[in-house]
Design goal:
heterodimer; A: alpha/beta; five-stranded parallel sheet; 13% strand; B: nine-stranded mixed sheet; six-stranded mixed sheet; 15 strands; globular
Chain lengths: 611, 572
């Protein structure tokens, strides 16, 4: 009976990780998570089609893995194991390692199974982190990192089968933790403002993730929550002037929120992308406080021309196209305009292990994800004879394409498009144009899909763009066509040559991961904004910037020692200081007592509604 | 210790009282008691800045320190960490430079606990701060913490609790504030002054202005008096209404006095009639007789004027006093107190006559007195179930905290004996008894475990297994502590005793053993009484008293206690 086995586990949890007790008792989906006896008798675990432990002897397997994994671990490190399974591997490591140890598991069901069937009590003093959210999991490592003497002390060991299930999750946990380790001496505070909807909404989120991975303090104003309101406003009146006026009010509300948040969180930069809300008054107000605004115009400049009015209000204006756009901007008085091409987020755009059901749903010989533009309609109509799946919106009156159009032309999510890129044998990427048939001979910029498909390890046929050679080596890591009439032949060829296809796709992924990620793009942008112009950070003038607090602590060694531990944290709050104090041991010092008093007083006042 | 004891004027005490005006007034008897006990003691008071001046008028206060909590709050709200830090830092430096020997924290908020620590005093009582949580440095503040969210279980008046936290006997003097220069009010000779405050901190607590006016009319018809109205500027409309309704000439000081001037005005009165306000407690501190009308959450048992002979009226309703945060839809009880009865009490007070307690179907009129231990009690015509429990609880806590020696010797046994005795007891008759039996058994077992851990440690053996079991047993006790009855109360107080275990494992094990043993004994005492009662109803009065703690909650009274403890939520 599992209850006999789990009593010790629960007691161990109660003693070492009591916060997980409630999670341990949860029912798990026994359809997906299956515990089976191994040949040697110890329970083994299968999740879906994936065997997480040896079906023969999971204990011996764990011992072998532990021997191998610990070979390179230096003394004094703090080991963070990625993946718990039933805990065999973690126990094998614990038996050989008496230093600090944490285990992260991304699937609560697996943890429940481990609490019921595993033998966790053999883990001794081990911190367990169960979370489906990579950022939260990384954050929960904070106390451990503090005890270990810094984030850099964390050494990551992977349980291969668990990581195979959620490579993205575990990669991101590791990346976030490492980013904290390599955090710049003085991280920036960046407020990312997202649009309400559309193709640039995910790009804003990729930017926020990238800033975070670069070690900066990121605040996100996610305006997607206002999108239902926007839609309602658009139908509020048949008089378009009324609707416009209401939309202006909504824009003003969202823009004013930027000021409120930026000042409250003492950020150094407000980062916006195409369609993010802003008003000239708010941009000016932020400038007055020394907080620059940067706008990434991820649009085709000749197609969408609102930049003419909006570009001058920002301090920095980034484009995905070069001349003559940049010249035009300069002519209009936009001094700090700069080219910043699109990219991929390899933590999101990544190879997936798809289930047979997913392959059936998202897979086809050729596919395209994108909106219905004139040139695409024209070109794709000639391909309707292939095993073709067409995904995306704005395909009204699809004609011959109706039989290949998926979900009646509904927009698909980022997660689904990643599945399509993974599942399709050949991804077609034709840059949009309303003015051309076939390939636009003047097209310069590369659309996000070019990078995203490649980062997913997908194979793509892309129309030749002026800038393509700068980013890829056509024929080696991508295949380009100059004329749509080449397409059927190219498709046939690559359908018939899977090895060539796979080699090109793998090279494409490598190229994007090495040189075309949002992390690199955001680093470039920040370098341009802060290093080259030697801009003074707004936050450095903030009275609660840790450097200013340290300066003020002169002459009080206890206070200085406490604040020194926060050096590099930028602008700190009372809560940050309290969090630090909670990690310390020994008798309370006078400064610690004063901060705790202030914290408790504020809490008491809040409870009494005095604030 | 040099510097602490060698001051010319004897040891310095710091009493922290950051709560409101009324609480500060109820701190005055504590200062008096401290100075009466040791005239050499130098009492410093730490109060909220707006009360600094009135604090200086309290007799025996050598120095008043203030903290401007309003400004502090503004600084914190604006995120001005450095400014807020400096404000407290300067106060701490000042306090530390004064070499305070003892701090008595009579404010029951966590921030005050940190202030107590910052004073640098080597001795502390009341709520104190540790690194990880709040600590009650003495049993009385532990009791106060436990009963704060479950006031029906309180047993002592606030001042009595404060005196015990400070370790002081009740003061012998009857007035604790200094003489105040006259305000020069236009009072005609031969007309005793009756002061009234018409307002209160919430509408729930406010006796209707019509009732005040009628009372004044009745008094004025029978004896020449001068009515002085006092209160805050917000209470001016009430005063206007009073003047209109009563038709009596009054001296209307409402909204026109600061606290010092209020003190002068109250000192000039022959009597104060008011709700449970700062003014009535100020009158008690000045030795001015009082008549109180306690409505809403006001609970005379806890906060009647600390003054022998004070008369307190309150409604006789099941819903009185209102629970905290209560919103009443009808305020029907406000009509329960007849102005005629209040006027009679006022007249008697004015004439120095002894007033007997009285009660009708609608209201109770009780008179403040002190028992032989010096604890405030309310003389009444008939005792209610709640009164009886309070009286019994008072005895239990006094015995618990001021000397176990009074406990019946047969119960002061060892836990091992306790377990032996338990096995021979009759099977429990009800769920309630079963709970006590289980608690007694658990605590007896846990005591043995603690003893085995202690013995392992003494012999130098690893207590690993025993420690794990003990942790489990202590965790099981949490279930009892969360119970909404006397068993919960007992267990919780036991847990508070353990909240600051010594660093040394052996000493910690010994502390756990002794606390668990005491809890086991207490559970057993109660259980035996229950069983005795089953066999011999009304066996003896003492048994009745002993059984009071655990079972009042189970004797058909409504569930009185919230399921969780605010203090436990707050500090981890």
């Amino acid at each position: 009976m599992p209850s006999d086995i789990c009593r010790d586990n629960l007691q161990w949890l109660a003693e070492t990780n009591p916060n997980l007790l409630s999670l341990a008792g949860k029912d798990f989906d026994s359809g997906a998570v299956v515990v089976t006896p191994s040949r040697r008798g110890a329970p083994s675990l299968r999740v879906g089609d994936l065997q997480l432990h040896s079906a023969y002897d999971p204990i011996a397997e764990a011992d072998r893995l532990a021997e191998r994994s610990l070979a390179d671990v230096t003394q004094g490190a703090c080991i963070v194991m990625l993946g718990l399974g039933l805990g065999y591997f973690a126990q094998a490591v614990r038996r050989r390692w008496d230093g600090l140890l944490a285990v992260i598991e991304g699937d609560p069901d697996v943890f429940s199974a481990a609490a019921l069937w595993g033998s966790l009590s053999g883990l001794g003093e081990t911190k367990l982190i169960i979370s489906e959210d990579a950022e939260q999991a990384a954050l929960l490592l904070k106390p451990l990192a503090a005890v270990a003497g810094g984030w850099a002390k964390l050494t990551f060991i992977r349980h291969p089968a668990s990581v195979k299930r959620f490579p993205h999750f575990y990669d991101e946990v590791e990346a976030l933790a490492k980013a904290r380790g390599s955090q710049s001496a003085d991280p920036l505070g960046v407020l990312v403002v997202t649009p309400l909807y559309g193709g640039s909404l995910p790009i804003a989120r990729y930017c926020a993730n990238a800033f975070r991975r670069l070690g900066h303090r990121v605040e996100t104003l996610d305006n997607e929550i206002y999108d239902p309101g926007r839609r309602q406003i658009e139908t509020a009146s048949r008089d378009r002037r009324h609707c416009r006026q209401l939309l202006n009010l909504l824009t003003t509300l969202m823009a004013e929120t930027i000021t409120a948040r930026a000042l409250d969180r003492a950020v150094d930069l407000v980062w916006l992308v195409a369609q993010s809300p802003m008003t000239p008054a708010v941009a000016a107000e932020l400038r007055k406080h020394g907080i620059p605004t940067a706008f990434w115009f991820v649009e085709e400049w000749q197609l969408l021309t609102y930049w003419r009015e909006s570009a001058p209000i920002y301090d920095y204006f980034f484009t995905i196209q070069r001349e003559p756009f940049l010249r035009d901007l300069r002519d209009r008085g936009v001094k700090r305009a700069r080219y910043l091409p699109l990219a991929a987020d390899p933590y999101i755009h990544r190879p997936l292990e798809l289930t047979p059901a997913e392959i059936a749903e998202y897979g086809s010989e050729i596919s395209h994800v994108g909106a219905g533009y004139r040139n695409r309609r024209q070109v794709f109509s000639g391909l309707a004879g292939f095993d073709f799946k067409l995904w995306g919106n704005d395909w009204a009156m699809p004609g011959v394409l109706s039989k290949v159009l998926q979900r009646d032309g509904a927009r698909i999510s980022t997660a689904e498009s990643v599945k399509v890129f993974n599942a399709a044998t050949i991804n077609l990427n034709l840059h949009s144009s309303e003015f051309h048939d076939g390939v636009n001979p003047d097209g310069d910029y590369l659309n996000p899909r070019t990078f995203e498909i490649a980062a997913c390890g997908g194979f793509q046929l892309v129309d030749r763009r002026r800038d393509l050679d700068e980013y890829f080596r056509p024929g080696e890591d991508i295949v380009a066509f100059d004329d749509a009439r080449e397409l059927p032949l190219l498709i046939r060829y690559y359908l018939d040559h899977p090895d060539e296809r796979r080699a090109i796709a793998a090279a494409g992924r490598q190229r994007v991961c090495a040189g075309h990620t949002y992390d690199l793009r955001m680093a470039d942008a920040l370098d341009y904004i802060f290093s080259r112009e030697n801009r003074v950070r707004a936050s450095s003038r903030h009275p609660n910037h840790i450097e200013n607090l340290i300066k003020g602590a002169d002459g009080d060694p206890d206070l200085l020692a406490l604040l020194e531990e926060l050096r590099g944290a930028g602008v700190v709050t009372l809560d940050d200081i309290i969090e630090r104090i909670r990690l310390r041991d020994g008798q309370l010092t006078t400064p610690e007592t004063i901060f705790l008093l202030l914290f408790e007083f504020r809490r008491w006042a809040a409870e009494k509604d005095l604030v | 210790m040099k510097g602490i004891l060698d001051t010319e004027r004897g040891p310095r005490w710091l009493i922290i009282q950051l709560a409101r005006f009324g609480d500060l007034m109820q701190t005055a008897p504590v200062v008096a008691a401290a100075v009466e006990q040791d005239p050499a003691v130098e009492v410093h008071l730490l109060v909220d800045a707006p009360l600094g001046n009135v604090a200086k008028s309290i007799r025996g206060v050598a120095k008043v320190h203030t903290i401007d909590r309003g400004k502090l709050l503004k600084e914190l709200a604006a995120g001005r960490i450095a400014d807020a830090y400096s404000r407290i830092g300067e106060l701490a430096a000042d306090l530390q430079s004064r070499r305070i020997a003892r701090v008595v924290n009579l404010t029951h908020t966590p921030d005050s606990a940190y202030l107590a620590r910052l004073s640098g005093a080597p001795q502390a009582s009341g709520l104190a701060a540790g690194r990880r949580k709040m600590i009650s440095a003495d049993p009385w503040s532990r009791l106060f913490r436990v009963t704060l969210p479950r006031r029906d279980w309180g047993a002592l008046h606030l001042v009595d609790i404060h005196l015990r936290i400070a370790g002081l006997p009740s003061p012998k003097s009857v007035a604790w504030m200094n003489a105040i220069p006259s305000l020069g009010l236009p009072i005609r000779p031969g007309r005793p002054v009756v002061g009234m405050q018409l307002g209160a901190s919430s509408p729930l607590r406010r006796w209707p202005v019509e009732a005040f006016a009628r009372t004044a009319q009745i008094v004025a018809e029978r004896t020449p008096v001068t009515i002085v109205l006092v209160g805050t500027p917000a209470e001016q409309p009430l005063a206007d209404e009073f003047n209109r309704l009563s038709g009596i000439e009054t001296i209307d000081l409402v909204g026109r006095t600061d606290i010092s001037q209020l003190t002068a005005a109250v000192a000039r009165c022959r009597l104060i009639l008011s709700g449970d306000t700062g003014t009535i407690h100020m009158a008690a501190a000045l030795g001015v007789p009082t008549v109180g009308v306690y409505l809403g959450m006001a609970r005379p048992e806890d906060t009647a004027p600390y003054q022998c002979g004070a008369v307190v009226f309150e409604p006789r309703r099941d819903c009185h006093p209102c629970p905290e945060q209560h919103r009443c839809g009808h305020l029907a009880c406000h009509a329960d107190i007849p102005p005629e009865a209040v006027a009679a009490a006022v007249m008697a007070q004015l004439h120095g006559e002894r007033i007997p307690p009285a009660a009708t179907a609608d209201y109770r009129q009780r008179v403040v007195d002190f028992d032989d231990r010096g604890c405030l009690i309310l003389r009444d015509r008939a005792e209610t179930e709640l009164d009886r429990r309070r009286r019994e609880l008072r005895k239990v806590w006094l015995r618990e905290f001021e000397g176990m020696k009074e406990c019946a010797p047969e119960f002061a046994t060892d836990a091992i004996d306790a377990e032996r005795r338990m096995s021979s007891l009759v099977p429990p008759a009800s769920e309630r008894d079963a709970k006590l039996v289980a608690l007694a058994r658990l605590t007896a077992e846990a005591t043995l475990t603690a003893a085995s851990v202690e013995s392992d440690l003494l012999r130098g053996n690893s207590p690993h297994r025993g420690a794990a079991l003990l942790r489990k047993q202590l965790a099981l006790l949490d279930d009892y502590a969360n119970g909404p009855d006397g068993v919960g109360l007992l267990t919780h107080i036991f847990q508070l005793e353990l909240e600051q275990p010594p660093d040394d494992s052996l000493a910690a094990a010994a502390l756990i053993r002794s606390c668990l043993g005491a809890l086991a004994r207490r559970a057993l005492v109660l259980m035996v009484n229950v069983n005795d009662q089953h066999q011999h109803p009304n066996a003896d009065a003492d048994a009745d008293e002993r059984s009071a703690v655990a079972f009042a909650g189970a004797q058909g009274n409504p569930p009185l206690l919230p399921p969780c403890f605010v203090w436990r939520e707050g500090f981890g």
